[in-house]
Amino acid sequence: MRLLLLAAFFAVPLAHAQSGEAFVQQADIVLSAEVDEAIASGATADEALARALVGAPESSNVAVVDQRGAGNVVRMLQDGTGNLASVVLAGAFNQLDLVQAGRDNVFVGDIVGDGNRLVNSSQLGDGNSYSLFLEGVNGTTHSLYQVGDDNAAVQYVGPGLLPASIEQRGGAEVTIVRR
Predict the structure, then answer these.
(1) pLDDT at res. 124
(2) Signal: is it a keyword of this entry (predicted)?
């Protein structure tokens, strides 16, 4: 079962920049009925958001970024509780910088292509979850730093690929699944 359901739910990216660079910064935004308008119009997006946020605290943020092509940069900072981040990087020589600070945050990433860089990804706090799918990737650099209790990191690694560097401090669990 792929955990990239968040990315599949939203057809419209939340962050877009003409230069190939996306910057998302979120801090304790209180969700309300206006969220569906901010993300996308239409019943499909509304229903998807409602399903994705069932049981999420009011301070949750949702960020969905889909970057395709070469040389894209995604910088994402989420501060607070119960944040959800979904990133798709498809292409070559793309870069992701991720920081989630707080508790019960979720990151799901799908990386396809060569020479992508996911360096210095961090989750700071307790109860955070990090899932990464690496497919057909050569020369990718990736590192994750998790600090806090009850954190989990899962990597789904394609044939012949090396798992990412993961450093955890506190009670944590790492799972690597080879496909």
Answers:
(1) 94
(2) yes
Task: Return d(Cα 121, Cα 95) in angstroms, integer.
Answer: 11
Distances in whole angstroms, Cα of residue 79 to Cα of each of 30, 32, 105: 12, 18, 9
Q: For the chain, what is the mean pLDDT?
A: 71
Residues comprising the chain, all counted:
179
Phi-psi category of 18—alpha, beta or left, where left has phi over 0 and alpha has psi -120 to 50? alpha
Q: What phi, psi does 39 have (nearest 5°)?
A: -85, -55
CB-based contact 88:66 (threshold 8 Å): yes
Q: How many Å apart are CA 112 and CA 116, to the nearest integer?
A: 8
Element (H, E) at 17: none
Average pLDDT over residues 151-164: 77
The region that residue 148 occupies, defined by phi over 0 for left and psi between -120 and 50 for alpha, beta otherwise, is left
Query: Which residues, including other chains, have CB under 8 Å from residue 37's CB and lie 6 or more apart?
Result: none
Q: What is the pLDDT of residues 119-139, one digit of tens each?
A: 788 999 999 999 888 776 667
pLDDT given at position 63: 87
Other CB atoms within 10 A of residue 22 CB = 21
